[in-house]
Amino acid sequence: MADPIxxxxxxxxxxxxxxxxxxQAHATLRSVLQMLAGTGVLHVTCEHIEDIVVATTPPGxxxxxxxWDFQQIKTRESPDPWGLSAVLDAKPLAxxxxxxxxxxxxxxxxxxxxxxxxxMDPGDEDVQALARGRGAEKExxxxxxxxxxxxxxEEAATFLPLVRIQQLPRRIDIESRNISALGELGPQxxxxxxxxxxxxxxxxxxxxxxxxxxxxxxxxxxxxxPEERVLQKRITASxxxxxxxxxxxxDHVLLQRITQDLTQIQTPLVRKMRAGVASAGIIExxxxxxxxxDSYRLTEEAMGTWKGDDKLEEDLDQRxxxxxxxxxxxxxxxxxxxxxxxxxxLLDKLTSQAESYDRNPLYGKDGMLLMGRACSLSxxxxxxxxxVND
Length: 390
What we know:
Layout: H1 13-36, E1 41-48, E2 50-56, E3 67-74, H2 84-90, H3 92-103, E4 109-117, H4 125-131, H5 139-149, H6 153-159, E5 163-168, H7 171-185, H8 191-209, H9 217-221, H10 226-231, E6 234-236, H11 241-248, H12 268-275, H13 280-302, H14 310-331, H15 338-352, H16 354-357, H17 367-379
Parallel strand pairs: 3-4, 4-5
Antiparallel strand pairs: 1-2, 1-6, 2-3
Helix pairs in contact: 1-7, 1-8, 5-6, 7-8, 8-13, 12-17, 13-17, 14-15, 14-17, 15-17
């Protein structure tokens, strides 16, 4: 039977738009990471005047004057390096010219950056000169750019010295590079924590791009002033203060909760499952579910969104233990593998009745996560997995 998935879409602009939106979020976080590193970035504003606007106070700046970097981000599918022709075709300079006209009389210290996905052509003298703010130094180049941007050579002569080109990693690399940089800012963090923090930063960047960063209640009861709406697009130090604390203070996150390494097989959980003659696949499933549940909780605590307290967690654990011990009592001694039978029966019970156990909910009423939490309780010696000798 034919499948339309094999047919080229006449318009795939939606996918392209989503990819560009995601890429811009990661490009935004490059400056946010610099802010977290304390390099002088004051704030990063999204989708206002330009795709990204970065405010900095560079070292040695007198009187704390602010330098503004207006960035137009361009992505493309081609892996070929950017030459001047490709830059002109992509039209970042046209957008930067409009920005220049909008801000040139405001008394700002600023530059205009074309952020390009991929590398510049090292053999293209014109694009290399443009990248260094020297696009106006050669008359033929100046006239060529002026003609394509549809401005006069005189206008180009004052505009081009402000222009820079920044090479950005390609979309397959930019996220992993950012995560590596974040990991270096918090070298004491484990990989799961770094990824959780980066995912949260990405979420906030997306919200800023949509003008939704920060509390929503003022816009629900008032008509915000224009500047207030713009502030919803700005990522400041206070916007990421909790992330900063977690980078500097590892005790603010649950560093030691993931104690189950899938390569370490002699944990109490595994020993008890082996006593119940568990198959290798079931042991691996138990380890994986336990690790996933711990990772879920780690992420929630790292983000400050874990809803549990001692009483709620105790209630959940008691319910899980009652269910687990009941199943164990019914199936201990079942041959050839009581552990396999107990595991499958308990998993079915928790997935089909998740709401009865996770009432609050702490684990999103997800039966798989609840099974992982039950495996954690077993690892803490709260219940076993049967024995063929029972």
